[in-house]
Amino acid sequence: MTTTTTSMPSSSSSSSSSLRLVSIVSLLAVTLFVTAVSFNKIDNDETSDISTPSLSRRSLQQTCSYSDLNDKISAIRDFGENPCMDDRECCSNPFVPIKGSIYNWDTAFARNQDLASETSRKPLGLEVLFWGDSIVEGMIGENVGNDVENKADYLTTFQNYFRPLEARNRVGRPYTKGLALGIGGDRIPHLLWRIQNGEMPPVYQPPETKKRRRKQLLWSGTPVEVFWISVGTNDVYDGCSVDALLVGFVNLVLELRKLRPKATIVVNSILPRDQLVFNDQIAGVNEALQCYANLPRSARDSTLNNLVDENGNFLLDDKFKFFDATNIFYKGGDDIERHLMPDGLHPSAEGFEEWFKEIRPQLIKFNHIL
Which of the pair, 275 or 160, is modelled with greater confidence? Predict the structure, then answer.
């Protein structure tokens, strides 16, 4: 006789099924929660003007070519492409020089002309000339030609590193012969106007005497060895596009290469700001400048009409440099280093000192300055 046995589910099998059911329910709950958070984030992003900042020095993600740069220059300079990030009129064409018009601008410009003229009276010229906006003018503790209260130590800090005429500091080491020519509120087109209208130090002319030294006769006539450009933060504030800022900087370099072909030209990165909405754009401009400064010689093309002089010489040569100062003022986290940039835009005396400490080795590297 055959006995048929009916198998009943064991308690362990029942527990396993229950666990699987709980896991499925839990997974569905997590999925629904993540989806809800995602939709909520999208809604918040659409109504917010401030995005997560990109202040830190990022790995270079842009690709660049001289041919592309040549086309960008033509698009904005020759074809009138809107230099703004959107359709509004916000940004001046970077190829059109503009004389400043804010209060006391003429006084600041006249001061800069006098300083530039004074340095040309010495046969050895300057080792570095800083050119820019309120950040550069702040190196000497002034803003649009006026002394700024509680900033006398700024000039002292600058003179610990750079002096236009004196040869040695208090410990017997040579100063770097440097000069700062800035005007608060200036944009790239303002600096272009200043370069073309009187702030360029003239070439030293040896005195006409019978006892003129032979070394004066053989002097090369290069009044500035390094031009250090620090401008652009006001153009960013105006809403200029990354391309407009890029070609604006390049146009400054091309102008200086034509006027002083033997000089090294350094474009300093646009410094970070505490207004977070601007920092992605600042990072984009800095990356583009770094990319072009690092392009190899083999990439140069003398047929690109916007990048050569009338003799066919390629102007973005090895004397065009880029210096990234981002990490001096931003060390990570959600904010800049407040003790180095208290107002979120202009360096403090301590901030300038940290910056100058990084600049000096670069000057030694570029021109073998002592």
Answer: 160
